[in-house]
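Minutes, project check-in

Agenda point 3 was the complex the collaborators sent over. CS summarized: two entities, 160 residues total, and the question is how they sit relative to each other. Sequences were read into the notes so everyone works from the same version.
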Amino acid sequence: EDSAVPAKAAACVSCHSADGNPLVAGVPILAGQRADYMAMALRAYREGRRTGGPAGVMAFYVKDMSDQDIEEIVQWFAEH
Amino acid sequence: EDSAVPAKAAACVSCHSADGNPLVAGVPILAGQRADYMAMALRAYREGRRTGGPAGVMAFYVKDMSDQDIEEIVQWFAEH
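CS then shared the predicted structure for the full assembly.
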């Protein structure tokens, strides 16, 4: 399947990277993580259930994401 | 080094498992995750910066953890 980064995940890759080695300290590895967990985490950021510090950065990136966007992004990271 | 589960991580293993394959859907894989990220996440649960749903379960487990406990647990998962 297409291993190129989907446009929606491009922003994520800037910190989380595309090969599982985050470029930024304290940022979790997403490659191979469970898609259902990542979807729950993104919804938690979007709905303000994760706050403070880095959560604020995530909330900024996630605020306009639809459930469909979230699904696409987490599938990509789970498979890469 | 000793690969046995440290007592403090025993409760974690019941859902997250010790070999990287969580026993429970929606529960993140911790094996090999960044220790600094996991420590930040545990402090967020302990300090109530992650709320709702599964975060409530985590807050229950983390509420009496010291920073030292957290450090020991995240080091173990990062290395296993």
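Noted in discussion: The mean pLDDT of chain A is 90.
Follow-up: revisit at the next meeting once the mutant set is ready.
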